């Protein structure tokens, strides 16, 4: 049986001359082939808008399990396909030499002819922060030290196994996240009138004061922030 070449689907090519190629595109002379259309717009930008799932204790995790079959997959929106799928381990300042549970995995099953999309979802313990070995309580304590005195004194006074360079990166990451944190807090309450007078970092101190006002009864305002807004603090 002969097959016509015209019936074979061909990749779509676009002509871009004199322009730099975005990620996901490979040059073929003056023509380029789009391997992944989402990469043109930036997958990272799409993932930033995802809603994260958090739980505080075993009771809340059990409640999530009981609702799994009635919960839509955040990726494909299908209901009835989610199942438990293991654990996510990592280190933190409370156990620098021993891995602890950071998140639990949920799988949208596409096995045995199920209609799921085959992707996984991480349900994070509310006291953990992605790509950070500090817990939310540890981060809160460090940030409070950093805004009420010198940064060097904060690094010396903070009891953890992290190096000074790592703590500097943590502070820089907090600085970059301040705008997003302020925007999220504005939906809960207005910012305080002014930063504490004894602070040498007034902008950062005001963010922490705003966070404290937004969750006045919380042991760890950062934990409450993550679970309420369903996003990582930073």
Would you write up a description of this structure?
This protein has 234 residues and is an alpha+beta fold. It has helices at 37-41, 43-47, 58-67, 136-147, 151-157, 164-186, 202-214, 221-229; strands at residues 13-15, 25-28, 31-34, 53-55, 82-92, 95-108, 120-125. The radius of gyration is 23 Å and the shape is globular. It starts with 12 loop residues before the first strand and ends in a 5-residue tail after the last helix. Mean pLDDT is 79; it is low at 1-49.
Label this structure with key terms:
234 residues; alpha+beta; 2 domains; four-stranded mixed sheet; three-stranded antiparallel sheet; 7 strands; disordered N terminus
Number of domains: 2
pLDDT < 50 runs, ≥5 residues: 1-49
Helix content: 25-40%
Structural class: alpha+beta
In short:
It contains 8 helices and 7 strands. With 234 residues, it is of the alpha+beta class. The chain folds into 2 domains: 47-125, no CATH class; 136-229, no CATH class.
Secondary structure blueprint with pairings:
Layout lengths: L12 E3 L9 E4 L2 E4 L2 H5 L1 H5 L5 E3 L2 H10 L14 E11 L2 E14 L11 E6 L10 H12 L3 H7 L6 H23 L15 H13 L6 H9 L5
Parallel strand pairs: 4-7
Antiparallel strand pairs: 1-3, 2-3, 5-6, 6-7
Helix pairs in contact: 4-5, 6-7
């Amino acid at each position: 049986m002969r097959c016509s070449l015209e019936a074979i689907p061909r990749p779509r090519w676009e002509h871009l001359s004199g322009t730099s190629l975005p990620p996901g595109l490979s040059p073929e002379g003056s023509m380029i082939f789009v391997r992944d259309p989402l990469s043109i717009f930036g997958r990272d930008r799409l993932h930033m808008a995802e809603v994260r799932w958090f739980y505080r204790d075993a009771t809340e995790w059990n409640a999530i399990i009981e609702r799994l079959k009635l919960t839509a997959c955040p990726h494909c929106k299908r209901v009835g396909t989610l199942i438990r799928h293991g654990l996510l381990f990592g280190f933190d300042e409370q156990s620098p030499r021993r891995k602890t549970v950071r998140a639990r995995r949920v799988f949208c099953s596409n096995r045995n002819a199920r209609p799921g999309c085959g992707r996984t979802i991480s349900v994070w313990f509310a006291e953990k922060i992605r790509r950070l070995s500090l817990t939310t309580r540890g981060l809160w304590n460090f940030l409070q030290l950093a805004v009420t005195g010198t940064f060097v004194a904060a690094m010396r006074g903070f009891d953890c196994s992290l190096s000074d360079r790592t703590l500097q990166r943590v502070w820089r990451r907090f600085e970059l996240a301040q705008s997003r944190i302020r925007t999220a807090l504005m939906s809960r309450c207005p910012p305080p009138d002014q930063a504490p007078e004894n602070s040498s970092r007034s902008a950062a101190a005001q963010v922490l004061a705003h966070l404290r006002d937004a969750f006045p009864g919380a042991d760890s305002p950062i934990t409450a922030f993550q679970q309420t807004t369903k996003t990582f603090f930073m």
